[in-house]
Design goal:
Elements (H helix, E strand, L loop, with lengths): L1 H12 L8 E5 L11 E7 L5 E8 L2 E4 L5 H14 L9 H11 L9 H11 L1
Parallel strand pairs: 1-2
Antiparallel strand pairs: 2-3, 3-4
């Protein structure tokens, strides 16, 4: 749950909308995945943590049973690289942080917003 809070907080800190990355649904509510291009589906029940986490690409549930939102974000980055997908424009900075700060891929060219975050994290 801590990783989920950190990832959601990161998206908010970067000025992007959490709803662009995560789709939250209730356990007993029917869910239609067709309008979603690239998202992480989190199904909540009555308990504390999510019951199920999966990845949605082009309206289809690609990887059901990811276990946690942190693992789903990791798998989503792998899918983006493996399938040569473009980052969704509304989440440009979030995926830049995932790629350049967390995975340390092409970390020399940072946008000013991500550079400011990196400076705050390292100070």
């Amino acid at each position: 749950m801590r990783r989920d809070a950190v990832i959601r907080g990161l998206v908010i800190y970067l000025g992007e909308k959490v709803e662009e990355l995560f789709e939250d649904a209730l356990e007993d509510t029917p869910f239609d995945a067709t309008p979603h291009t690239l998202k992480i589906l989190v199904i909540h029940g009555v308990g504390e943590g999510p019951l199920a986490v999966s990845i949605l690409i082009d309206g289809k549930e690609i990887l059901p049973g990811c276990g946690s939102t942190g693992k789903a974000c990791t798998l989503l980055m792998g899918l983006i690289y493996a399938l040569n997908l473009a980052y969704p424009p509304p989440l440009r900075y979030t995926f830049e942080v995932f790629q350049k700060l967390f995975l340390e891929l092409d970390g020399t060219k940072l946008s000013p917003k991500v550079q400011a975050l990196k400076s705050k994290l390292l100070s």
